[in-house]
Amino acid sequence: MTPRFRPDPSQRLVVLTGAGLSARTGVGTFRGPDGLWALSPDLESAMHADALPGSLPALWRVWGGMTKVAADHGPTPGHYAIARMGAPVITQNVDGLHQAAGSRDVSELHGRAYAAVCIDPDCTWEAPLTPGGGDRAEDHGAPSLCPVCGSPTRPDVVLFDEMLPEAALSRAQALAISADVFAVVGTSGTVFPAAALAPLSREHGATTVLIDIDPPRDPFVRAAFDHVIAEDAHQVLPDWERHRDGATNPFLDPFG
Ligand SMILES: [Zn+2]
């Protein structure tokens, strides 16, 4: 068996993360047999932009509830290792756990479930949430109506048929281009635009790595990666961190 790939400490590491990284907090993933879509099919229709504003109670219930689960649990070993390695993060997650772990450079492609915004895209009102249970904005510490324009408020997550946040998307592309090692964690990376970022990164010279305990069999997906590590990210990423620290700090016990 060949030794597992590890980034060299001098290499610029960029990480793209998805739901799998937060799964052990109890936050459900969307796809798959145990995913939220399978468990409550009506939810999927509520996630489409054209269901607004009737879908607001479902959106508050689902996203507020998920954010509360994530916040109560806190970041995982994988989140902490990424933060301590100082790697910039591109994430499909909306739970804020990268920031909670200490990551400062986080591009959130799918928005933030821990913030409320106005349903009117031209209104710039926003506020942090205190996620709880329930299907009203007030249950999560936000007003139901925008204090600026009086429109309904909503969780700041990207719904189907909505544009991704432009700033996060262009930052993600710049990060992919700048990486020496581009690691995809907790997502198969099959959903656009995340699916385009690993190939973009490789085109610009990066080594691409997929870390997934159950990586996709699809050879087309795997072809985007130089290395596929079929192991638990919560073991692989702390191992990478120790490898980096061990190379820069000879006094650190590499097995500690
Ligand atoms: Zn407003």
Description:
The structure is a single chain. The chain has helices at about 20, 35-40, 40-45, 55-75, 75-85, 95-100, 165-180, 195-205, 220, 235-250; strands spanning about 15, 90, 105-110, 110-120, 125-130, 155, 180-185, 205-210, 225-230. The model has no long low-confidence stretch (mean pLDDT about 90). The chain has a single domain (about 15-250), classed as Rossmann fold (3-Layer(aba) Sandwich), CATH 3.40.50. Helix 9 (about 220) links the parallel strand 8 (about 205-210) and strand 9 (about 225-230). By secondary structure, the chain is an alpha/beta fold. The structure holds zinc ion (ZN). Zinc ion (ZN) binds near residues 118, 146 and 149. Keywords: Metal-binding, NAD, Transferase, Zinc. This is protein acetyllysine N-acetyltransferase. Its EC number is 2.3.1.286.
Features:
256 residues, alpha/beta, Rossmann fold, six-stranded parallel sheet, 9 strands, elongated, binds zinc ion
List the helices and strands and how they pair.
Elements: E1 13-17, H1 19-22, H2 36-39, H3 41-46, H4 56-73, H5 77-84, E2 89-91, H6 97-101, E3 106-108, E4 111-118, E5 126-128, E6 153-157, H7 166-178, E7 181-185, H8 194-203, E8 207-211, H9 219-222, E9 227-229, H10 233-248
Parallel strand pairs: 1-2, 1-7, 2-3, 7-8, 8-9
Antiparallel strand pairs: 4-5, 4-6
Bound molecules: zinc ion.
Enzyme class: transferase
Keywords: Metal-binding, NAD, Transferase, Zinc
Protein name: protein acetyllysine N-acetyltransferase
Low-confidence stretches: none
Major sheet attributes:
6 strands, parallel
Spatial strand arrangement across the major sheet: 3-2-1-7-8-9
> What percent of residues are in strands?
15-25%
CATH architecture: 3-Layer(aba) Sandwich
Could you give the count of β-strands?
9
Q: Per CATH, what is the topology?
A: Rossmann fold
The chain-level structural class is alpha/beta
Radius of gyration: 19 Å
Q: How many individual helices?
A: 10
The level of helicity is 25-40%
Q: What overall form do the CA principal axes indicate?
A: elongated
* CATH-level-4 superfamily name: TPP-binding domain
Calculate the terminal CA-CA distance, rounded to whole Å. 24 Å
The averaged pLDDT comes out at: 88
